[in-house]
Amino acid sequence: MTTSSVTVDAAYLTEETEAALVAAVYAKAEALSGTCKLVNAERRYHSCSVGEASGNPSFEMKVGYGQNGEYGVSLTAVLVHWFPPPKEDVISGAFLSERQKRLEDWMLSLVPEEAIVNAVRHYIGYDHSEEF
Questions:
Q1: What's CA 32's distance to the chain center, in Å?
Q2: Terminus-to-terminus CA distance in the chain, angstroms?
Q3: What 3-state class would DSSP assign to 26?
Q4: What are φ and ψ of residue 22, in 5° steps?
Q5: 21-30, 38-47, 70-79 — which is least confidently predicted?
Q6: Taking the C-alpha atoms of 67, 69, 70 and 74 in order, what is their torsion angle to the nearest 10 degrees?
Q7: Burial class (CB within 10 angstroms; exposed 0-12, middle 13-18, buried 19+) of 90
Q8: Which residues have a Cβ under 8 Å from the Cβ of 95 and sit 6 or more positions away?
Q9: For residue 55, what pLDDT band results from cuts at 50, 70 and 90?
Q10: Is 0.70 topped by the overall pTM?
Q11: Neighbours of 36 (CB within 10 A)
Q12: Does 86 score more than 80 pLDDT?
């Protein structure tokens, strides 16, 4: 499982930019035959599920304020293996689909570069993170 996230600088956020980010995530999920819902109204936190497609893993896209109070857009990919692959294979990117890479690029394009606090990919269960 990998999670890619783009954290947005609070100074960039307005009601309009938040609404535009949410609309963009909903539109992308719909284009990928996914479904979205508001998960936490207080944090304005939305979650979208996109199923597997032609060799690509299932995805969950999220947008809103995380538990840490930071606003961001994230993508979690789940790829099931019979046995856990070696850490070296995982962190080399061997299991990143082209669709995941395209969605990471798309997430970066949603926000001006100067408004991005960080863009990080976490390899869950492998104790490894890297910027993308």
A1: 14
A2: 16
A3: helix
A4: -60, -45
A5: 70-79
A6: 20
A7: buried
A8: 2, 79, 85, 89
A9: low
A10: yes
A11: 20
A12: no
Q: Which residues in the chain belong to E strands, given as ranges? A: 2-8, 35-40, 45-50, 58-65, 71-78, 116-123, 128-131
Contact 47, 62 (CB under 8 A): yes
Which contacts of 12-21 are long-range, i.e. CB under 8 A and separated by 24 or more positions?
12/111, 12/112, 12/115, 13/71, 18/44, 18/71, 21/63, 21/73, 21/110, 21/111
3-class secondary-structure state, position 51: coil
Percentage of the chain with pLDDT > 70?
87
**What backbone phi and psi angles, to 5 degrees, belong to 17?**
-70, -35
For residue 124, what is the DSSP state? T
Least-confidence region, from 8-12, 14-18, 39-43, 75-79: 75-79
